[in-house]
Design a protein that fits this description.
Helix content: under 10%
Largest sheet: 8 strands, antiparallel
Number of helices: 2
Strand content: 35-45%
Number of strands: 14
CATH topology: Immunoglobulin-like
Order of helices and strands: EEEEEEEEEEHEEHEE
Radius of gyration: 17 Å
Length: 222
């Protein structure tokens, strides 16, 4: 499967405007591959990415129910909440330092804008929830991102009724380059990645992706 990241014709305003001129020409990925352990709730989830000279802009639109959001701290287990994710593996770096090995980034953001983000070099789990080799992206780098979320940062109770929620955020090139070194010119980049939707602790848990992940319930299958 391929997804074409187009250059933004206008800079996204990060207000959750899905049909604005900045996003109108972006390709849309639908996360329609649900793992067999999912409940009967199958939220329609759409994702878009565009770029400019400074970095990437990511936009999710979710038609959902049974929405939960209890975590506000970055690097908490946001996938337990109603969460959308994009995993990105940049082109292989031009340097050979340990920090610049060909890993990937897991941007896991709940509906309230809290983010779990690692740079993962080896996704093998040698303990539950622990990757064999990863860097925890520090807050000072997360602070270089800009994030818009349409729902409140937390929800007092699960929203069982149908609701649409949006996330829109900016990732600067500098965040990627801190780990992988200088990126190639945008027109020469060919990355690997996937989009995901989950809600582990919802009353109706589900696990969806754009590109199928196979029989094992594990999004970390680069």
């Amino acid at each position: 499967m391929q997804y074409l990241i187009r250059r933004a014709k206008q800079t996204p305003t990060l207000q959750g405007l899905w049909d604005s001129p900045a996003w109108r020409d972006a390709d849309t990925a639908e996360l329609a591959s649900f793992h067999g352990q999912s409940s009967e709730h199958r939220p329609r989830t759409l994702a878009r990415i565009v770029y400019d000279d400074d970095g990437l802009y990511v936009h999710f639109r979710v038609h959902d129910r049974f929405v939960i959001c209890t975590r506000t701290a970055n690097q908490s287990l946001t996938s337990k909440d109603s969460c959308v994710e994009v995993y990105l593996q940049p082109d292989r770096p031009r340097t050979t330092s340990a920090r610049s090995s060909p890993g990937y980034f897991n941007f896991e953001m709940n509906s309230g804008g809290a983010l779990l983000l690692f740079y993962i070099l080896d996704p093998l789990r040698n303990d539950p929830g622990i990757f064999k080799h990863k860097f925890i992206v520090p807050q000072r780098l997360i602070d270089t991102m800009r994030i818009h979320h349409s729902l409140p940062a937390t929800l007092e109770r699960e929203i069982a009724d149908p609701i649409e929620w949006l996330l829109e955020y900016f990732i600067p090139n500098s965040l990627f380059e801190y780990y992988v070194g200088p990126l190639p010119p945008a027109g020469e980049r060919s990355w690997c990645g996937n989009f995901h939707k989950c809600a582990d602790e919802s009353s109706h848990p589900h696990w969806a992706s754009w590109s199928p992940i196979g029989e094992t319930l594990n999004f970390h299958v680069p």
